[in-house]
Amino acid sequence: MTKETDHARQPTDELIALLDAADTLPGVRELRAMSYELLHAEPGTSAVDVGCGTGRAVAELAERGANAIGVDPDEQMIAVARGRWPEADFRIADAYALPLADASVDDYRADKVFHELAEPARALAEARRVLAPGGRIVLIGQDWDTYVIDSSDPALTRTIVHARADQMRGPRAARRYRNLLLDAGFHEVGVEVHTGVFTGPAMLPLLVGLAEGACSSGAVPREQTDVWIAQQRARAAADRLFLALPMFVAAATAPR
Ligand SMILES: C[S@@+](CC[C@H](N)C(=O)[O-])C[C@H]1O[C@@H](n2cnc3c(N)ncnc32)[C@H](O)[C@@H]1O
């Protein structure tokens, strides 16, 4: 296993709490459902969810009758996934070395994962290896430079967003999906962008994570970070938090 190290990586339990909060929001549920449609997931098809986290998509694909497996290099994620969905098949592995034979799956899915990858082209070569001819791939993710956040200090907000993006291995992977898929030899490549609008407190931990990341990188002093976080908390409490987040959804077909 070749799990990359990342000093800026969020602790897994915090990430799980954030994903759980986001997962239940209406727009997020719809995006997952769209991904299953784009994969043409149906009874009898096989699917791998790469970077599956706690496994919700694997369970939902199984509900549609697909034979789905979930793969993630994080042992804690896989332990939680196995606890939540004991009937499902989860493996500890990463996107560069999938535990699957050549041309053995119909569908490949990776949701909010490619920003974690230093070598997205190598991951897509691995996707090509495991996908059957004519198999489908769907990538979903946000562009980490493109968080639209209302704030009384837009310059500081821009610094926070960009400093956090600079800590990621692939902050702009999502805007590259089309070119990466074409370069990897996929056909029928399409990209849609669906912007989620979040006004409730559910996304507050995401905003706090951006600010704490920017602080830990040295881009924003502790005091300014705390003020910015306090203002966002106050906005959430007063129903004045506003976050718009464009989510990129790319779909393509493996050569027949
Ligand atoms: C933001 S979470 C998304 C989890 C899940 N796909 C979801 O939508 O809830 C990113 C996931 O990518 C996983 N990940 C990180 N590096 C990876 C790699 N090299 N290969 C596969 N997955 C990876 C992380 O462990 C984590 O579970």
Note the overall shape.
globular
Distance, first to last CA: 30 Å
The overall average pLDDT, rounded, is 95
Low-pLDDT residue intervals, each spanning 5 or more residues: 1-7
CATH T-level topology: Rossmann fold
Q: Using DSSP, what is the number of strands?
A: 8
Output the CATH class name.
Alpha Beta
Count of distinct structural domains: 1
Task: Kindly report the oligomeric state of this protein.
Answer: single chain
CATH architecture group name = 3-Layer(aba) Sandwich
Class computed from helices, strands and strand pairing: alpha/beta
Which ligands are bound? S-adenosylmethionine
List keywords for this structure.
Rossmann fold; 42% helix; 9 helices; 256 residues; binds S-adenosylmethionine; alpha/beta
Describe the structure.
The chain has 256 residues and is α/β, with parallel strands linked by helices. 42% of the residues lie in helices and 23% in strands. The protein has one domain (12-253): 3-Layer(aba) Sandwich (Rossmann fold), CATH 3.40.50.150. It is built from nine helices and eight strands. Helix 6 (154-165) crosses helix 8 (204-216) and helix 8 packs antiparallel against helix 9 (222-237). S-adenosylmethionine (SAM) is lined by residues 19, 50-53, 72-74, 77, 94-95, 111-113, 116-117.
Summarize the structure.
The chain has helices at 12-23, 26-39, 56-63, 75-84, 120-130, 154-165, 173-183, 204-216, 222-237; strands at residues 46-50, 67-72, 89-92, 105-111, 131-142, 148-149, 187-198, 243-253. It is an alpha/beta fold and 256 residues long.
